[in-house]
Fold:
Amino acid sequence: MDRQLNRRGVLRHAALAGAVVGSGCVDRFREPQQRLWFVRIFNGSSRSVDVTLSVRRGGTEVFSETYADIPSFQDVEDEEASYADKPNIQFISSEWTPEPGRYSIRYTYRDQTVDVPVAEIEDVESDDLGVEMTFLGGASGAPRPTFQLVEFSSETEVRDFLDSVDGDAESE
Structure:
């Protein structure tokens, strides 16, 4: 009988310990809720690309556009560095409200549609994000898209960044 009490006691303590330890870990398993502020498409390949891009929040499309014949970076005169204002760059911002949610980028390229959850692109520490979609390659095959996140520490930092990008576009 002592054996059963010990076994029950151990099980009770294990359950209690699991509840205590697990209570601090709930946030780790919660769905990420970021705010997506922009998407930048950069054609760094040796060929022009056509892509249809959609931004989805919680499974609902909040933006969609087709970008035809984005020229290769090799076909663009590189007079001045710019993050957003060049023929081989499509900078998409202010097209949706950056509300907290689970975002994904859905794109169609070369008759293939792919859904890329933003939270799975990289490990993120920030709630305020931008996405860079870069096309690479093209010399010995079709260009391929890659993704990278741009993280911001606050909404103010994002807004300052977007103002500076808009300022670059206006000054050119």
User: Anything to note?
Assistant: DSSP finds three helices and eight strands in the chain. Residues 84 and 166 are 8 Å apart (CA to CA).
